[in-house]
Amino acid sequence: MELHNINIEKSILNYILFNQDDIDEIIGELDSKYFYLPDHRKVIKSMIKLHSEESPIDEEFIKKDLSSDENFKENTLIEILSSTSSANINHYIKEIKDLYFRREVINLSNNINQMASDSEHSMESIEDKMQTDLFSIVSDKSERDFKDSHEISSATIDYLAMLKKRGNKFLTGTDTGFFGLNKMTTGFQEGDLVIVGARPSMGKTAFALSMVLKNLDNGNGVAMFSLEMPAEHLMMRLLSMKTSINLQDLRVGNLSDEQLTKVGDALNEFKSKDLFVYDEGNLNINDLKSKAKKIKIKHPNIGLIVIDYLQLMGGSSGKDRHLEVSEISRGLKLLARSLKVPIIALSQLNRNVDARPNRRPIMSDIRESGSIEQDADIILFIYRDDVYKEIDERKKEKDAKDKGKEYENKYKYKNEEETEILIAKQRNGPVGMTKLTFVKKTANFIDPGDSVEVVYNESVSKTNTDVQIDPESIDDPMSGMF
After folding, report:
1. Are 418 and 439 in contact (CB under 8 A)?
2. C-alpha angle 188/191/149, rounded to 5°?
3. CA–CA separation, 195 and 78 (whole Å)
4. Alpha helices in 272-355, H assignment, sequence order
5. Residue 250: burial class (beta carbons within 10 Å; 0-12, 13-18, 19+)
6. Is 363 helix (H, G, I), strand (E, B) or coil?
7. Distance of alpha carbon 440 from alpha carbon 49, whole angstroms
8. Sheet harboring 221-226: ordered strands across?
9. Measured between alpha carbons, how far is residue 230 from residues 224, 234, 255, 278, 281 in Å?
């Protein structure tokens, strides 16, 4: 098959010369790279330039514009002028675009073949090149122009019909897994950048994994970048959520035969899900974008990307940290739009929140917050008052002990704690608060009113019914737990 058609290229250029009433629409659809013949590329570039300058697009002006190019053959214009225009100009434009993209795919294949033949290139670099360039070709091919009001109205009618058929009164995007949060956000939409912020021990990772599990159960693929926790640890957390087996029992392997069977069944179910975890540290924004695009190409059903957590990422170069964070947040937002999936990025908060009487977070508490606030579509904060009550009581107990005094710790351990999810920003919806319940034994969030019967092995769990907190380590009092 010929991967170019010179006659069609000449016919398109001829049409532009003699049919300039719809010149804006035609030139708007064309790019010089679509043309195979170098001189044809020069002619269309000249035409686009003349049009932008509001100069006539004719033989004389094109000759004048290209007169300094010694390699341009003037008989090219003669051939164009003598060719036949086509009434099917849109079909001709589509044809040269298709041929161009086929050439690009073949060029990519040749480049990969050369790299594969050169032992200096690692398989990882070959795979990166292949996936990144292929995504670039696919993205380029899917570029679109403005939508007019007719197209927008028609699409909206179809969208409303789809919602009516679905029968859900409020969920229009990716299911968060929680009724109240779905109701306030209508779900996370395609292209949303969602920031989830909290102080250590509040449950950022647990909250994200709760949403991951819901999406997997709904049949969506999930890609997770875990920059702090190994993939195996995340799977233990998911297993505890899925089976309701006490997380501590899973960690130490203290399981009955019945529990082992339950875990085996859950693992077999997970094997059938599209869950992908990248757990290497030192990831910068360019690496993340490349890997996210690759996995999305391989598995188009991926409907959610999670990053745990944002402050562990680096920029593309050793810039000032403020500039790096701006690059990261903007890069994540553009990636979400490009892949058409919501991206959830977990974020640490400043220590300042701990010093306030009201410790509920606000947007300025996000570490390196300026650009993050601007780029995020939704900003959520997790707040568990009981965490601070426990910290405060243990600190009072320690201070009294240091002074040789007695102190009765007033904190009462609870298996389940009320949690506030604060919606501090929502670009297309209300701000406010919704409540969840945190189940400590399984490090899991559930809707209020739901119940989870935690299954655990008495021989171990009775000695692990409370979590000991070091009051001097308030910055991360439950490190590794949530």
Report:
1. no
2. 105
3. 59
4. 285-298, 321-339, 352-355
5. buried
6. helix
7. 65
8. 275-278, 221-226, 302-308, 343-348, 193-198, 378-383, 416-426, 432-439, 444-446
9. 11, 7, 22, 9, 10
Instruction: Identify the DSSP state of 188.
Output: B
Q: CA separation (Å) from 139 to 24, 104, 133, 143, 404?
A: 23, 13, 10, 6, 69
pTM, 2 dp: 0.63
How remote is the C-alpha of 87 from its chain's centroid?
Answer: 44
- CATH for 6-141 is 1.10.860.10
Domain range annotation of the chain: 6-141, 172-473
Which CB contacts under 8 angstroms, 24+ apart, belong to 64-71? 66/42, 69/42, 71/38
**Per-residue model confidence as pLDDT tens digits over 36-64:** 999 998 988 888 888 877 788 888 899 88
Position 107 pLDDT exceeds 90:
no
Count of helices and strands (H, E) across the chain? 19, 9
- Rounded to whole angstroms, how far apart are CA atoms 303 and 223? 8
Banded model confidence at residue 315, pLDDT cuts 50, 70, 90: low
How many Cβ atoms sit within 10 Å of the Cβ of residue 107?
12
Tokens of 130: 């292949």
Rounded-to-integer distance, Cα 475 and Cα 287, Å: 30
CB 131 within 8 A of CB 293: yes
- What's CA 178's distance to the chain center, in Å? 20
215 membership: H or E segment, kind and range: helix 204-217
Instruction: Give yes or no for a contact between 208 and 308, defined as CB atoms under 8 angstroms apart.
Output: yes
Tokens coding 177: 């897994």
- Are 418 and 386 in contact by the 8 Å Cβ rule? The answer is yes
- Cα Rg, the chain, nearest whole Å: 29
The pLDDT confidence band at residue 210, using thresholds 50, 70 and 90, is very high
- Single-letter amino acid, residue 64: K
C-alpha to C-alpha distance for 237 and 216, rounded to whole angstroms: 14
Q: Which residues contact 155 (CB under 8 A, 6 or more apart)?
A: 147
CATH 3.40.50.300 fits 172-473, yes or no: yes
Pure H helices in 53-188: 59-65, 75-82, 89-117, 123-141, 149-166, 179-185
Under DSSP, is residue 455 helix (H, G, I), strand (E, B) or coil?
Answer: strand
Enumerate the β-bridge partners of residue 416.
Answer: 439
Backbone φ and ψ for 61, nearest 5 degrees, come out as -70, -35
CA 482, CA 479: separation in Å to the nearest integer? 7
DSSP bridge partners of 421: 382, 434
Query: Could you give the percent of the chain with pLDDT greater than 70?
Result: 83
